[in-house]
Structures are given as C-alpha cells and as structure tokens.
Design a protein that fits this description.
The protein has about 230 residues and is an alpha+beta fold. The chain has two domains: about 1-175, Jelly Rolls (Sandwich); about 180-225, DNA Excision Repair, Uvrb, Chain A (Irregular). About 35% of the residues lie in helices and about 30% in strands. Strands 1, 2, 4, 5, 6, 10, 14 and 17 form an eight-stranded antiparallel β-sheet that branches. The protein has a five-stranded antiparallel β-sheet with strand order 3-7-15-12-13. Strands 8-9 form a two-stranded antiparallel ribbon. The protein is globular. One of its GO terms (molecular function) is L-ascorbic acid binding.
Length: about 230
C-alpha cells in the first residue's frame, strides 16, 4: 500500500467538490460487475455526463504526471477515474476488482494491476467509511485527508465500511502497469525511491548515481511489457 500525500492541492479539491455538487449521481450498482454488485451500495457520478468526463480527464492528467504514481505503478494505462459518494449508512462490502476492464468509448481493455482511491473529503467530514484492505499482514484500514490517494494491489480483497455520519466523496481508478509482477514492481519502486533520496541528500557522486540509474533502467527494460 502506497500513500500519495500531495496528489491534489486544496484548490484542486475545492474545484472537484464544487463541480461534483452539480452533476447527476446514479446507483453505483450499475457499474459493479458480477458478485461485487451484491455488496455495493453507493452513488456514482454519471459517467455519461460530459462534465463528469471532463473531471475524470482532469484527474487523469494529474495522476499520469505525478512522479510517485509513475514510480510506484509504472502505468501503461489508467482507467478514467470514477467519482463515488457514500452517504450515511452506505457501504461497499468485501469484493475483488475485475481483472480486465473495457475502457469506455475505446476498443481498449485494461488489466487492473493496481487500484487507487483519491480522497475528496477530509477524514473529519465523516465517520466510518474506512477503506479496508486484506493483506498478508491482516486487515489494513485507511482513511486519508482530501487530496491524498492510496495505491494498492488490485488482487487484494477490499471493502469500504459503512459511513455512519456525514458523506464520503472519493475518486477511484485502476492502473495497468508495464510491470505486471507485483513483487518486481515493488522492488523497482524501492530502488527508485532509494535513488531519489540519495539524489536529494546530495552526498553521492555523480558516477555512483549513474551506476544506480543504469541498474534501474536495465531492470525496467528487462521486466516491462510494452
Ligand atoms: Ni473495489
């Protein structure tokens, strides 16, 4: 699980919230596939609405350019984000995300390697509504402030606990990675982050950093499928 703290600024969040307050929302069950529909109880901004499509594209451009998203996901394709809203007592029970998704209005499909939630309401605006992800180390509960996002493997079971007070608004999307192997992707992320911290510390010699960059890019070259 990777938290991205600074994905959206406060003014970005305000803009998304303001726009979302005037678009139609539909029953989230409409877009859930198979067994997920039975446990999904939320509202989703109508993806047929041109204003919603514009918001999705705006968010997509912010995601696709963010260095930490690129480093963690090595994205090849990103699904147009969906905006959802959980009002009081709404919830989404345990489910797995579909492995293959058709990208709307294109002939393309996407393999979901990583799932992402982008929080558009602050933690203290609602109670409950935690994203819970099953991991090899037990259940991890996540609740971030508006503008922050979490990336996690799409292969994991996850749920959103019932909102007991207030309203939870978030965007969700899925990324197909150039590196489908989760362990290799995580290792590449660790290597890239370690190189970045050495660069930022300013203590390593140019030649040493070149050596590490060389290794990183050769690993990406070997393990990516493009
Ligand atoms: Ni899901």
């Amino acid at each position: 699980m990777i938290i991205i703290d600074d994905l959206l600024t406060k003014s970005d969040v305000a803009q998304f919230r303001q726009q979302l307050s005037s678009v139609p929302f539909v029953d989230g069950k409409n877009t859930a596939m198979g067994m997920a529909a039975g446990v999904k109880n939320n509202g989703q901004a109508d993806a047929q609405d041109s204003r919603v499509q514009q918001l999705a594209n705006l968010l997509l451009s912010k995601l696709g350019n963010h260095p930490k998203v690129i480093s963690a996901a090595l994205p090849q394709r990103i699904f147009p984000p969906c905006f959802n809203r959980y009002s009081e007592s709404q919830t989404y029970g345990y489910h797995v995300d579909a492995a293959i998704m058709r990208i709307p209005n294109t002939p393309d499909v996407l393999r979901s390697d990583m799932s992402m939630t982008i929080f558009l309401t602050d933690k203290d605006e609602y109670e409950g509504g935690e994203l819970v992800i099953q991991t090899g180390f037990g259940e991890q509960k996540v609740k971030c402030d508006a503008g922050s996002a979490i990336l996690y493997p799409s292969s994991s079971l996850h749920k959103v606990t019932p909102v007991t007070k207030g309203e939870r608004i978030a965007a969700i999307t899925w990324l197909q990675s150039m590196v489908s192997d989760q362990q290799m992707r995580e290792t590449l992320f660790q290597l890239d982050q370690s190189i970045q911290s050495l660069v930022n510390a300013g203590t390593a010699e140019r030649e040493q950093l070149d050596g590490l960059h060389h290794v990183y890019h050769n690993l990406v070259r070997k393990f990516s499928q493009v």
